[in-house]
User: Fold this.
Amino acid sequence: MKIGILTYHRAVNYGAFLQAYALKSFLEGLGYEAGFVDYWPQEHKNRYRLFDNSTNLKLLFRNLLLAYKRYPRYKRFKKDQMQYLGIPERPVYGSVRQLEQIGKQYDLIIYGSDQIWWKSRLDTNGFDPVYWGEFISKNIKKNTYAASMGVISLTDSDKRYISNCLNAFSHISVRETQLMEVLQPLTGKKICTVLDPTLLVPSSFWESKCLKDAPVKGKYILYYRMMSDERADVFANETGRILNMPVITIIGHIGSYKVDRINSVTGPFSFVTLIRNAQYVISTSFHGVAMSIQFRKEFYAMGMNRNSDRVYSLLTLLGIENRMTDSVPANFSERIDYTRVHSRLSDLQKESSDFLISSILS
Assistant:
């Protein structure tokens, strides 16, 4: 069986790469031929472009500096995407019309994971219809796995649109409990909640991907600053002061030319290694939290504002919702009981893998 995966596989984003690679690897481990439906329209290209065009001389100079800082990371991502995700240098499908040519290339397409149902990506009704099952032959079976919407803000018109689109999928699963509760009334099909692919694979999978040559030596706190938040900045600096450790900061998007070298050169597996070797992790990102759990790290999540649902949902399932905080803890001696957490995670992994396997076979 040949399975296509439709997700944000070309994003210059650590979480996007890791979830795509994990799902592909998991499916291949089951014996399936898995690859990506290489859809990457102009809107996506604009979001992750290396250079921002401008006719203003001051902005042009700034953008040149930004491109110079971004290039090493972009180059690393491009290389890893081609090597590990198996995609060509340039996208195969750049428009919805090109997708109609797929025909019977796949036996099944899995939509997800990641925030493929994120609203306000386009100027039409706020959704990209491709990720809702449109423009690809109705003769190809379609499932979703761990699909996410990010911030959930739906109008009545949105709900009518989604209700109709859900009919395209044979089996539906999402990543967050909150999203499941919103979507379930819109369809007669059962919607399941499953783990993000980065948590579906065992920790040994990620351990095997860590670099032998560590990007940073010695003890440190890793601060993954995916979303900008002043409180998280203060939290990270204060934690470093209290624990007397340097804070290594990795930013999600290089939007300033005043970034250090580690931000420019860190690729997906360097990022994984940095989390594995850290003493503590502070993250404003879901995948920073997910990888911390995989490596049994002491961590804190904060600074996600309206995007916090997906992290809180995961932490609640694992019984460690207290690790989402708004302030520096009074006592750093409190440790996460990872024996209990990973016991629960093992149960969730089985439930998620059972769903995925069953949805493929039925």
Observations:
- Residues 167 and 188 are 9 Å apart (CA to CA).
- Residues 203-345 form a domain with the Rossmann fold fold (CATH 3.40.50).
- The chain has a mean pLDDT of 92.
